[in-house]
Design brief:
By secondary structure, this protein is mostly helical. It contains 7 helices and 6 strands. A two-stranded antiparallel sheet has the order 1-4. The termini are far apart.
Length: 242
């Protein structure tokens, strides 16, 4: 059973959101086309990135916990990761919209995005010799700045609030992947290519990696659904009901 551990983590991540997708209040199943469009756009960046870093030894996978099925140097379980994690995260995002419609973080979302974007770009440039740190921070920083200055949608209050909730399963699932509760990690990292700062066993870069991944998906997802009106100048827009 050990060799199915990563696969079981994928299944564990997906099972509740998938079964709850048909619940009539949020009816997440009706938004699948927008979700998978977003996942597709994200994969155009993240799959080549994952392949490159795996081949370069920035990170890798412990065969003890894998089924052995691979494609383009990535195990089957890693391919599934890029489906089940976004699926679960967007389900949480929809739950946040449903249960907390007021967007308590909306007013700070724009300055937060700008400050975070600039800060990440600066840190990424300072640590240019560490591939994971530099690429992740610069890409996420540019993504936040472009989103704030160009797309300027008003769902970022929900996005940042959902991110706080995403951190709960993030610490659980990523913790197991990186060696929490296990004698050795399922996914290992070359600390010469990151800051060496761990949140329990998780490289701090993983949280920014998650932020960028979900920013791409959420941007495509929301623009496909067209639920939020674009703001006029800097005035808040009004969410459009489904």
């Amino acid at each position: 059973m050990v060799k199915y551990l990563y696969l079981l983590l994928d299944a564990f991540t997906l099972i509740y959101p998938l079964l709850s997708s048909f619940e009539p209040r949020m009816h997440f199943v009706s938004k699948w086309s927008a979700l998978f469009l977003g996942i597709g756009w994200m994969a155009l960046l993240f799959i080549p990135w994952d392949v490159l870093f795996t081949m370069s030894g920035v990170w890798g996978f412990n065969s003890t916990f894998l089924t052995g099925i691979q494609f383009l140097h990535l195990p089957l379980e890693e391919w599934l990761f890029f489906i089940v994690v976004p699926y679960a995260c967007m389900f949480i995002y929809e739950a946040v919209i449903y249960f907390i419609p007021s967007q308590p973080l909306l007013k700070i979302s724009k300055p937060l995005s700008i400050l975070l974007g600039i800060g990440l770009c600066v840190l990424g440039c300072l640590f240019y010799d560490r591939w994971y740190t530099s690429l992740t921070f610069v890409a996420a920083g540019i993504g936040l700045l472009l989103h704030t200055l160009w797309i300027r949608q008003t769902y970022m209050g929900h996005f940042y609030l959902a991110f706080l909730f995403w951190l709960i399963p993030f610490f659980l699932v990523n913790g197991i992947l990186t060696g929490s509760y296990l004698p050795q990690p399922i996914v290992w990292y070359n600390d010469a290519e990151n800051l060496g700062i761990r949140l329990t066993t998780i490289p701090v870069e993983d949280s920014i990696y998650l932020l960028l991944m979900m920013l791409i998906i959420t941007t495509v997802y929301e623009n496909k659904l067209n639920r939020f009106l674009k703001p006029k100048e800097d005035s808040p827009a009004i969410p459009v009901a489904d």
